[in-house]
Amino acid sequence: MSSTLADKPEAPPPPQAVVAIQSGTTTPINPATPINVAVQHGTLQNVQVTDTKTGKKIDGQLAADSASWGTTVGLSYADSYQIDATAIGPDHQVVHQTGTITTIKPAIQAYPSFIPAPSQNNVGVGQPLVVKFDHPVTDKAAAEKALTVTSSPEQAGGWYWISPSEVHYRPQVYWQPNTTINLTANMFGVDLGKGTFGETNRSETVKVHDSWIAKADGKSETMNIYQNGNLVKTMPISLGSAKYPSHVGPHIVSDKQPTMTMDSCTYGVCEGQAGYYKEKVDQDVRISNDGEFVHSAPWSTGQQGDSNVSHGCVNLSPANAKWFFDHFNVGDVVEITNSGGPPLPVYDTYGDWEPTWDQWQAGSAVH
User: Fold this and answer.
1) How many CA atoms lie within 13 A of 60 on its CB side?
2) Residues designated as active site
């Protein structure tokens, strides 16, 4: 018996498009998370996301198959966004979907400042990279994972937490001359713990100039100065006296001033006490935050090359101090040995080279 058209089952109707706001609209999202809209059984025709505070349209991109759309710019904290999406399905019916997404409101936003600052983009081989947050970081591992350092030529390096709000990066050995370093802090949206989130993303590029390393020896009372490994000058010096010995170890130039007033009261020896001084000093190159400088000391030229009589500084004759001031800049290195003093603390600006490489790596939150 032959079949008839009436016996054939009817084809199912074409499906209707189903539009979904994949980011969800029930709980606040992290603003670093894109807003995504997708369609099943159809193609997206139009998607608009509007910042409800400003009325600004948020940029996004449609996928090549027109099945999904996502924002291409970051959102803001403590904001809301209206989504309006239109799709068409195989049934040729237009489907319209709307929704509102809100973003989280951090209790605290932590800003990452950089040392060297972006304006100080030329440094010596000893310069560490420093990220200082204006609020303490509880989840140090999360912060560290959001920090990236690349260098050309490539050199091994790592992070070390000086405090809950300050982390330093240095290579295993001094930077190679002419290295280009890029530091990126992708902190926006990063949960740093206890209600604190990263405020913004930042980056900078730093160039390393020639290697300038001064080796100050308290035993020989001389300082040998090397440029790119070549000895270029030797100077007689006077380091700190037995009562005020200079710290030993690598010191890094952090600042220099042609003239400044040095006051012993800044470290507790004030007017009326034995050893008090307050005087104008020239050609001042700061090598620690503990009051140690390489500077001109015309009053001690008789002891330079013979005995250590300073309050911890590297004393030079006026002519040698001028030469040193003209050649040494931020990030250059002064290594002090045989001074009788303790090692420069890692937290002093900058005692980063005092820890061994193993000790430095142990200061990371992700190792």
Assistant:
1) 26
2) 295, 313
